[in-house]
């Protein structure tokens, strides 16, 4: 994750936990990003820019509990901002194109594929027995050695290897659709 995404996501999570200072900082940071976002689309100094910023901040406030902390914050924010802009343009009968790929003001980097992949891996691993899941995560994802995992778990090295092998084999069968969980 990029530093901006990490910072905004952290502030949002802290705000959801009741930290008022983090919430004020989040709204301030988001407000600045929204001003830049709307100014580029509406034109510098457009009369509606500040109204859109305020409407979006209000929407963030009222919908803050719909934010999924496992997902990127900036993608969630961009969706709200984009819909507010579309609503405004419809209401004012203005015709302005808003390219979907022009969201770099709000999103630091496109890590949605990586986030999706992590989500898929966690879902797949969730169907495995706890010990096997832990061994696979430690060796194949975290990069720990078989010996380290063996020492930490109390299982023999061969037991760790066999559990990983069987777990990966089961995942492969499930992914091919040959073995439902």
TrEMBL record:
Protein name per the record: RNA polymerase sigma factor, sigma-70 family
Give a yes or no for keyword Transcription regulation in this entry: yes
- This protein's UniProt keywords: DNA-binding, Sigma factor, Transcription, Transcription regulation
All residue ranges annotated as the RNA polymerase sigma-70 region domain in the record:
32-93
**Key word DNA-binding present in the record?**
yes
Identify the residues that the record assigns to the RNA polymerase sigma factor 70 region 4 type domain, covering every copy. 120-171
* Gene Ontology molecular function: DNA binding; sigma factor activity
Note the Pfam families from the entry.
Sigma70_r2, Sigma70_r4_2
The lineage's top-level taxon is: Bacteria
